[in-house]
Design brief:
The structure is a single chain. The protein is mainly beta. The strands form 5 sheets. The protein has a 4-stranded mixed β-sheet, with no helix packed on it. It has a 3-stranded antiparallel β-sheet with strand order 3-4-5, with no helix packed on it. A hairpin with a 3-residue loop joins β3 and β4. The longest helix has 4 residues. 19% of the residues are buried.
Amino acid sequence: MKYRLTPSETSGYKWGVYLYEEDFAAGKTLADGYYFYSENEGYERTAQNEEPKHTETARYGERVDVRVAQWETYFEKPVVWPPVPSNRIMLRLTLPKYTPAGATVVITGIINNQGCDYETGKPNLNEKLSDWGSIEIDNKHHYMLIDPDKMYEANALGRSFRFCLIPDTNKPDWQDTMYDHEENKDGSDTSGDVHKLAGAETGMAYDFEIENWRNKSIVQTY
């Protein structure tokens, strides 16, 4: 990627990139302002937790030194998860930073005899979202409350399930909008990684981290 920084071979605190003016938007230079983004730490922030805007620039053949004060994660508060009802199984989800606010994560599989229809890009979920959709704490943290009595098969969480994303369920035509899958860690072209949770008990919480959505370019905002 043209703008991806690489780490120094001698210091993990120094990163750099070669830039070429012909790659910039027409008429734009570094003096018009820029900032940095980390896939792991989020957007760059000032020491006062404000949005920065660098204007440092240089001519060809020169180096410009820029300091990042903090990353977004430095200012994040610990997540407060709600208590788990005694008759439910809680799945606590940590999602990619670019997951849009107001999105809904859906669980599919043997648990509800539903699936993600990757070929058409449309949801194949006929059950109520209140049963199988997530509850948002913030855009990075959702949770689900699974009722064992509503599972299509007993102990279905121990068999197999997947997570899918509906970017905006408030749209009247949400069932016709793009339906994103968890990105497969092995890079294969299937409908998301398969999860298994054997021995899940009511009154207990279980943590899952989703690193990426397959169609993330559709919902990215940066």
